[in-house]
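Inverse folding, one chain.
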């Protein structure tokens, strides 16, 4: 894997996914953020972010329920990163 495989491909992706993380940590994914995430091409988004994008794009959950689901996955991903870098 090259260094660019781990990096987001565009500033737009970084902004959208950054806003998604902010929304999740605030406790509610906003509809405007959800629309922006749905506009991304998940196949062009690097892992693990592509997982979140495809999940949100395929979800019919309310924004509240989706926030809870995504938060659980963010916590899991964070633990994996922590284990890896310790």
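Residues assigned per position:
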């Amino acid at each position: 894997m090259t260094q660019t495989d781990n990096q987001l491909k565009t500033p737009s992706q970084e902004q959208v996914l950054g806003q998604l993380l902010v929304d999740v940590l605030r406790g509610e994914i906003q509809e405007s953020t959800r629309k922006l995430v749905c506009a991304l091409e998940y196949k062009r988004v690097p892992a693990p972010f592509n997982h979140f994008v495809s999940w949100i794009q395929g979800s019919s959950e309310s924004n509240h329920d989706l926030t809870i689901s995504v938060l659980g996955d963010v916590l899991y991903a964070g633990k994996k990163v922590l284990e890896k870098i310790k």
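Confidence is low (pLDDT under 50) at residues 1-5. The chain has one domain: 6-85.
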